[in-house]
Amino acid sequence: MAEEKRILYEHLDVPDINTFDVFRQYDGYTRFEKAIAEYQPEDIAKMVMDSGLKGRGGAGFSTGLKWSFVPKDIKPCYLCCNADESEPGTFSNRYVLEKNPHLLIEGILICCYAMGIETTYVYIRGEFTLGKKMLDAAIKEAYEKGYLGKDVRGTGLNIDIYTHPGAGAYICGEETGLIESLEGKRGQPRNKPPFPAVEGVFGKPTVVQNVETLCNLPFIVGNGVEWYTQMGPTYADTRSDPPTPDPNTGTKLYCISGDVNEPGVYELELGLTSTELIEVAGGLRGEEVKAVIPGGSSAPILTHYELDTRLDFTSLTLAKSMLGSGGIIVMNETRNIVDCLLNIMKFYAHESCGQCTPCRWGTPWVRDIVQRIADGNGRKSTITRPKFGVAENGRWGDTGETEEIYEDLDLLESVANNIANVDTMTWNTICVFGIAVSWPAVSYMRKFRPEFEAAIREGKLVTLSVAEATVPPEENYAYQQRFVPKEFADL
Amino acid sequence: MSDELIQIETPFAFNEENQRAFDALIGRYPVKEAAMLPTLHLAQRQAGYITPAVMKYVAEQLEVSVMKVKDVVTFYPMFFEEPVGEYVIRVCHTLPCALQDCQVVLEHLKEKLGTDVASETNLAKGTTADSKFTLMKVECLASCDVAPVIMINDDLYKNLTPEKVDEILDNL
Ligand SMILES: Cc1cc2nc3c(=O)[nH]c(=O)nc-3n(C[C@H](O)[C@H](O)[C@H](O)COP(=O)(O)O)c2cc1C
Ligand code: SF4
Ligand code: FES
Fold it and tell me: What ipTM score was computed for the predicted complex, to two decimals?
């Protein structure tokens, strides 16, 4: 059985770890002290690049690379810590904020030192009242102890951290939506480019980083790159010649919920499979796994055929899904996939920010189609196609063959793909919320088509057995990119 | 929204404590407008909900137009433009909570409080006659490991069953 590897969460349950003194007993702030004593800012940035750390908030973008885009000559530069954590199925940042806020502060300090940043805003979702209270208290202590404020520990660095509460809008987790919201406006995402690294909050270069990403920094600095890169798989990316390493290094705070016996956050090295993770989380509640959502509700669903897909950035991208925020939702044989999709589509229809027409209208439309199917009013028709061949009378002509057409399923796919096309990976929207809508909509429908068809045929929700409900991989293009981008073809 | 159009029933101003908190806030940002969300949170805490008078006051404090404040208030679900009950009960109903029967908790609350579920445009629908409770559905509260969950004002309640709900409401 896969073993938990607690690094970020190692001291989470130590009593009073949220206070400076106890945190200090467990090496607290020594990694920051090491950074300022032993390394130049450029060295830290290089270490982060070499560590292969990828963003844990959703996009999985290389943190070192993101930092390298920040122009060095424009000041001030800001850090926005993304603690909006709203992706359904994700709950790891909450525990950091509530139980070990000093770890986040240390991560922020290291990032600020490396990037020459003086001001950090921690954007905390409005519902995290306890998390904000704990972090505010920790920040206050850090000021008192001289780790924040003017001339930090006599180094001449000035670093301030402010917390900023959100107000219940999911889209403020998207980095440019977050920036707009931080500026005191509606949280409506901006067009990119310019990317926040170049022009972000208040028009200045801005690094946006998830809580978990920042919490990795003390350990990379404290234990070294070599130690860090031993955790998790590194693949060879054969898109280039010679192949370049494609790191999936470090641990991940996997959030597992749904039909398992012990839901919770499990910190493990990247790269274990769904089957292993379910085992770590106390095993499946129920008889059989019907489906697994691997990266928060935005991620395309995995069927029981895909349970040995490794849960890391590269493997899931190749499986045409994503690790996203690491929110894993398990569903057993009693679950109805149409019903699950309906729940998720209600979420997205509620959360669209309304700027782009395809998203504003398309998302409720998709929801309405799924609602109609779930209510038993899904549309289907039996048509007679003119098919030429040898007819009954032995003569050449129209065979009069009939075919069932599930109009609503075609419509569902068409509407979803017109928000963002999951096959070509192109979208008609400002932000990738669009793909977060069409990915689940299309993948659930293609992979569990028999269950959708049954609901339309029978006029009510019908939960099929796992074997009946799932389309096997060889019969369905949903498992494969229909148009495989060239660079991915032989990865 | 010009001044003439706003009917100001009760003028609004921060009390001493909130004024101090506001003064501390404003220094954090290079532009005053950026303090919008925390300021509105403070104001809502004091006034109960965002009245036109609150919007006007916040607009003056942040040196922006009233329309801009209204624009923001209407975007975020946590800001109320209508009165709400003393206790706002938020029931999470997103997928992980739905897999743990949050519907049962919601139905129980509806029955127990004798009210419907509020919608964003009609909070009165979910508010009890004695204005003690407002019942609403919200999206994932980032606590899916302890689903189903609800929030009552600032506090989170986990692993709920109808019995636990009874106990919690009795102890409020
Ligand atoms: C619709 C949407 C919602 C998002 N929500 C979150 C979120 O709640 N928390 C988060 O850290 N990142 C979220 N992201 C990802 C951010 O845009 C951004 O990639 C991330 O904060 C960058 O930090 P990282 O590189 O450390 O992951 C979201 C993205 C999208 C498109
Ligand atoms: S895709 Fe949707 S959420 Fe994103 S900016 Fe457009 S309307 Fe808003
Ligand atoms: S779905 Fe209810 S807390 Fe996440």
Answer: 0.94
